[in-house]
Amino acid sequence: MSEVRLKRAYDSPAAADGTRILVDRLWPRGVKQSDAKIALWLKDVGPSTELRRWFAHDPAKWPEFQKRYAAELAHNPAMDALRAEVRQHGQVTLIFGARDTEHNNAVVLRDILARPPVASR
Questions:
Q1: Is 47 contained in some domain?
Q2: Within its chain, how far is the Cα of 106 from the centroid?
Q3: Residue numbers of the domain that contains 66
């Protein structure tokens, strides 16, 4: 059984993280790549620039952000790559840069990964 955890890029890596996957389009400001211990950077699984700017980490926009982001991910081939990594590694930690640990794209990704994939028509 796969386990998907979440962790801020600014928190120290730990062995319990398993495979660390950065899921933001932008590299977290001030984080050295050598210190981050990122196994894979899936830029394309992050929200579009337009959606990220619209959301601006405003908790009042959270329900709509979740819907819009899920719609972007529905036809995003990077989601298949993320699912494959989760299946392959079992223990995966999605790494994100946002300060808000409850309202960010990694939370949406974890929730989507917890559901069975929808078969395409």
A1: yes
A2: 3
A3: 3-114
